[in-house]
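Priority: low. Protein: Branched-chain amino acid ABC transporter substrate-binding protein. Input follows.
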Amino acid sequence: MKKFTVIFLVAAVLVSFAFLSGCSKDSGTIKIGVAGAHSGDLASYGIPSVKAAELVVEDWNANGGVLGKQIELVVEDDVCKPEVATNTAAKLVGEEVVAVIGHICSGATKAALGIYKDSDIICISPSATNPPLTQSGDYPNFYRTIAPDDAQARLEVDFATQTLGFKKLAVLHDKGDYGKGLAEFAKAMIESDGVAEIVLYEGITVGAVDYSAVLNKVKNSGAEAIIYGGYHPEASKLVGQMRKKGMDTVFISDDGVKDDTFIKVAGEYAEGVYATGPMDTSSNTLTMAANKAHQDKYGEDPGAFFLNAYAATTAILNAIEKAGSTDYDALTKALQSEYVDTTLGSISFDNKGDAIGVGFSVFQVQNGVYVEIQ
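Result:
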C-alpha cells in the first residue's frame, strides 16, 4: 500500500511539473532578434532597422501579438564586422529567438548565417545584397527584402553606358564581400556588353585618410565615370578628394552610399553623385503610415533600409501567423507561398530567399537630397 502511494505521489508530481512547465512556455513571449550595426561608422544603416522592428512589434502587440503571445525584440550589435557577428548570432541563439531581422552588412550576415542554420532559425535581412547569400544554396534559412547585387550592378552599368553614354569606366571597390562582390559583377557585365572599356579596376584600403594615389590613376586613365562598390565613409572621402583635385569624373555607387549620412559627411561634394537604392515606395499607403509613425515616435524621418526592415518584420510575423507555429519548416513554407502587403508593396520570397516584388532605382543628389531619377 505504501509503495503504491509513493508511486502515485511521484507520478502526480511529475504530471504537475509537466503541466506547469507547459503553462510557463505557453505564457512566454515570442522572441525576434534584430542584428546589425548599432554603433560605429555604419550605425546609420543598422539603427533604422531597430526602429522599424520596434514600430511593427508595437503595432502587433497592441492588437494581441501573434499566436496569442506578445512579441519581444532582442537587439544585438555586430558593428557590421564578421568577427563580431558570430558572437552576436550565438547570443541570439542563446536567447531562443525564433527569427532574426538582419544582419545589415553582407560580410557580417555571411559570418552569422551558419550559426542560425544549425539552430533552424530564419534570418531576413533588409540590406545584405551579396548574391551568393541566396544563390549559393548554402543558406536555406536566409531571406532578404532587397534585390541582390547582380540586379544592382546591372542597373548601374546600364545607367552609365546607355543612359549617360560613357565609354570609359573605372571600377573601384572596398575589398569587402559587399563592395568587391558588386564591383566584380559590374566588371563582368561591362566586359560582356562590350560597349564600354574598363580603364581601371582596383580595390581601395578602408579607413585610409588619403586616396590621392588611386584618384591619380583614375585621372590618368581617362575614365569618364567611377562605379564604386562599398559604403559611405570611403565614398565621401573619394568624392571630396576628387572634387578638391578639380576632377569632374562622375561618381556612381550603390545602396551602401545611398544614405543621408553620405550627404552630411561629403557636404557640397555630394551634389550630383548617383547611387542605386531600393525603389521609392513613398506613395504606398503602408509606407506613408510607417514613415508617419517613425516621425511621431522618434521626431525625425527614417534612415536607410527602414522600409526594408519594416517589411522584413512584417513578413516574418505574418509567416508565423499564417503557419500557426514558429516551427522552421512551417515558416519556410509560409514565407515562400504567402504574399504579404508591406511598405515595399505586396511581396513574397522565392525558394532561394530573394524577395519577389522588389527592385532598385537610380537616385541622384540634387540640392542636398537623393532624388529618384530612374
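The first helix runs from residue 2 to 26. Residues 1-27 have pLDDT under 50 and may be disordered.
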